[in-house]
Amino acid sequence: MSSDGTPITRPLSRAGMIAERQRRYPLWRLIHLLGSLKLALLLLATIAIAIGAATFTEAHFDAAVARAWIYKAPWFIAWLGVLCINLFAVTLTRWPWQKKHTGFIITHYGIITLLIGAVIGSRLGFEGNVTLRTDGQPQRRIITDISTLQIESPADSYLYLLPFDAKLAHPTEKHPKRLSIPGTKLEMVIDDSSEHLIRHPRLQEGTSPNVKSLLLDCSSSNLNQELPIGLGLKAGSDPVSGSPPAGDAPDRYDFFGLASITFHEELPHHGEKGNELLDVTAGSPPVQGVSLSRDGRLVTIRSDADLSATYDRSEIMNKVLALGTHRIVVREYLTNSTPVTPPSIRVEIQAHEDKGAGVGEGETIADSKPWLELAPAAKTQEYGHSGEIAWQLGRSGEVTSSGILKQGDSMPLGWADWRLKLREVATGKSVTSVMEPGSSKEQGGVPGFHAYLIDPSANPPLRGDSSWVASGEVTPLLLGNDLVRVGYGLELRPIPFSISLKDFQVPRDEGTETPSDFRATVQFKNLATGAESTGLIRMNHPASYPGGLIANMTGINYKFSQAEWNPRDLKETTLQVLYDPGWFFKWTGSLAICLGIATMFYIKPRS
Amino acid sequence: MNRSTLALLLSFLGFFLLQPRTSTASPPAAVPGIAHFSPSVLEMLTIQEGGRKKPYLVFSEETLRSLSGKASLLLEGARVDALPLITGIWMDPSAILPSWKERELILVSNRPLKQLLGLDPARKLFSYNELTASDLLAKKIAEAAESRRRDPKARLVGLQKEASDVAMRLALLGSLLSGDAFRILPPASGHEWLTAEQGEASPILGEMRTSWKGRDSQQFTDASQKLIHSQQTLVSAEGPPAHWKLSLEVLYQKSHPFRWAWILYAVAGIILLTASGGWMKTAYRAAWFFAGCGFILQAVGLLSRVLIAGRPPVTNMYESVIWVAFGTILFSLIFESIYRAGTFLLGAVPVAVASLIIADSQPMILDRSIHPLTPVLRDNFWLTTHVLSITLSYAAFALALGVAHVALGRIIVGKKPSEAIYHYLYKTLQVGVLLLATGTILGGVWANYSWGRFWDWDPKETWALTALLGYLFLLHGRISGLWGGFGLAVGSVIAFLSVLMAWYGVNFVLGAGLHSYGFGTGGFPLVAIFVTLELLYVLSAFLRRRNRRVY
Fold this sequence. Notes:
The complex is a heterodimer.
Chain A: H1 9-24, H2 26-34, H3 37-60, H4 63-71, H5 74-93, H6 102-124, E1 126-133, E2 139-152, E3 159-163, H7 166-169, E4 177-180, E5 187-205, E6 212-220, E7 225-233, E8 252-255, E9 259-263, E10 276-281, E11 290-292, E12 298-302, E13 308-312, H8 313-316, E14 320-323, E15 326-334, E16 344-351, H9 352-355, E17 370-376, H10 383-386, E18 388-395, E19 398-406, E20 410-412, E21 418-427, E22 429-437, E23 446-455, E24 462-463, E25 467-470, E26 473-479, E27 482-505, E28 519-526, E29 532-537, E30 543-545, H11 549-554, E31 558-566, E32 569-579, H12 583-602
Parallel strand pairs in A: 9-17
Antiparallel strand pairs in A: 1-2, 1-32, 2-3, 2-27, 4-5, 5-22, 5-23, 6-7, 6-21, 8-9, 10-16, 11-12, 12-13, 14-15, 15-16, 17-18, 18-19, 20-21, 23-24, 23-25, 26-27, 27-28, 28-29, 30-31, 31-32
Helix pairs in contact in A: 1-2, 2-5, 3-4, 3-5, 5-6, 6-12
Chain B: H1 3-18, E1 46-49, E2 52-55, H2 56-68, E3 72-75, E4 78-81, H3 82-91, E5 104-107, H4 111-117, E6 125-127, H5 128-132, H6 135-150, H7 158-178, E7 183-185, E8 194-195, H8 202-213, H9 217-234, H10 243-255, H11 257-274, H12 280-309, H13 317-339, H14 343-361, H15 380-412, H16 419-450, H17 459-480, H18 485-510, H19 524-548
Antiparallel strand pairs in B: 1-2, 3-4, 5-6, 7-8
Helix pairs in contact in B: 1-11, 2-3, 2-7, 6-7, 8-9, 10-12, 11-12, 11-14, 12-13, 13-14, 13-15, 14-15, 15-16, 15-18, 15-19, 16-17, 16-18, 17-18, 18-19
């Protein structure tokens, strides 16, 4: 203890003084109790065990659960508060401080400073994200990760906000959550939750007898996937009403952007002289003057007049290229999953006079995908009763097969292993949709909860119809004449400026598709002054607004870092946004901890 | 020499015996085509693969390892190395009797997958045709592809992961057979290199193939040199890396510096263990010499990796295992030069030797190839400061583990450890605590820049903190007098398990969180055995101490 050469009497008297003050003053006794090593050991052990357990919770459930149970749980925060008290008290027990205490004091206060920074950050700051598009509007709001409930009270039409996470609240029929609607005697009862709400088509008795509708089920056993589809024909020709009835479903369904399903009054006629389709394999001799390079990247076209041109395949997909008297369009690029088979392209050769008028060279033709067309198989009046539908499958203006499908029957679509089942055909019913928890085979889905209104004050108590409230939507709940609009979703935070994406680049590792960086050029615009500034966001190099040394050091600053990107759409990027006024305390505390430990271990005070 | 020394010695010998052979005899004549050539003329050919340019030698060894998990294969009873084998596929893709697709080249190691596919569970290697004939495998691969399509970031698990690994191996063989994998010529524009055919070197390749099939060794050598020459003349602005870099990588690949390092460490350890009486001083010097040589060799190996990859050598599990072994020896040598105790070296050697052997012998779990980094890691400043300090703290704690082993070992054999050992242990733990605290905090600061927040209870962050708290608990307990030196030694072993969790467990067991670039699979039984042995060691020290009342 006294290796630093201090007189041997001083530490003794010092220890005696410390013992003496504990004996005499209850406050010092308390300080020594709160700053005791035993408490420190208990804190260290319990915190270590708790957070270790939390990581398993996270692996088992997910991060939100770990957060709710441990990291952000009141008991854990309180326990960290006790840690702060312990850290502070232990520095007081050494009072009056000596030189040898320097490292010890710096370290312990460093931890307190860091924790203060964390408290400030979580109380006054916020985290969120914003998705920007190069062709999109400037954004003025940030999506936080806080689930919120918005209730519009029927009493005053005010919007009431409260944090609510259906998954964490975990309401059940036995243990429902009850929330009173402000300004009324009503209560909302939440009795179930789902992470997987999907809009399902339904047929509903409509107003117009001429509406024709149908329900289809598409399924793929390979993909273990199901897809319910509802289609309705606009009764635009209805001579009586003249206007389309409410709840009308679209007559077209986009099948993952890969194919389309359309519903017609009668099957469209496709000209018998369908455009010719050719398959050209990479590295093979030219087919009708078209050849594809071995790696599938270049397309060469040689016309009768011995003119030839080579194009980058990726640039000319679905564009009309002139070739002598014909026009050709590269419709599809077929790469097999086995790299042993060379890639090929499907080329459409169009007769010049057929389509020349509308489409010029270089223009993109949208409709190159396979399609399914459906139409009532019988006359209007019998449509609903016949239970039959006429279909034709095709691709690029050419019918490949056609037939009649009966209600309840199914058939293969020829799109991978997808099958189509005709669930119901109806007249006079319109297609609506209902939010419901989806089956395990259905894709996508949003979180939400199941709720209804009650009026406990009425005698007998009244109960309204129940409904699923899905995230991102406003759902009306009814009880008698009272209408309560309920919104659910992530809270949006306004920011005092707007941000827009000017450019987004994803450089790749040489010869691969693996990104080596993400470079987003953004423009900030101060909403008050209109002043604009730009920023470059790269991996590990965030952009800040307003930026500058002071703002960056204090964290009173909006910091934008690269978070997500969409490999299929390079016009879009998602940025993580952080506003952290606790940052100054965090980094100074951090610095203090490191310096403090180093001082404690390696710097011996000179006498 | 007492019994425990003998036991340790035997385990060292065991390591030697387990060591895979460093080189193989010259390729025997049994394999058609391959035997007559020294494809080594091609080893310096530059090839673009996996996002970087590398020597053909490295490419062939990495390729065979991904394909079959091995450095060489038995073909018709003869052992063939990667370089001739891959060259054989390139030169004669349409070889018949047997064709490449009928040869057992593709690794399927997962037992449940083999059971599902009805494959012989005793076999490890299967042929392309055998595997592609399986509808069940195709279905599993389709499922895996679908999971990937739905969520490109999803981590495949179980059979899907195994099936997708097999699919990648099948595709790799496919790309070798089609010649698509051999991207050896720089393009006129763009970044993607071309195959010999695309880059208009077809005649040279044709010449090489003819001479290969015709078994004309001289002509093959000439044609190969022509190919290398034409590659060099084609070099544009974005040409192959500098010649010294290629040579260094070939040298690094061939010389196995880490293997020699552990052998030298092991020699140092054996000398320290066996020395007694008047030889002590000489033995200590000799141990220093061997450990020093091993250390220099390892440093050179690490430096080569740094020069080849242009970044600190701590970007995947393999590199971090090597680096921790290095750090353990580094700290032990520093402490030895201060205290001249022998204890540090004796503690560090088993840790370093075991780590390096694991790194060398488990290529499927610890991938030694040099890959381009995921964008978030491409920041040498943060990679150097944060990752190096964290991994060096692991090294210090590994040294503490080693020193604790020495102390507990003495108790087990019935001797009383000196107070000095416990003091050494305390000193080692201090280094670890400072580095772990610094590294964890630096991680927070880096995360604040790259991910936008300082601390978010990511599992890797959390376990680093858990480990830190564990060691702080250990040190504070010592200060409070709750335990003494023995407790410190026991604690150093137990607390190292939390380091193991932060280092290996988060990436390989939990598999959650943002540090996903480090995720991997495998090795769990190995780690489980290690943990069990450690706990047994501690337990036996406890029991000995209680029964003998040694001190």
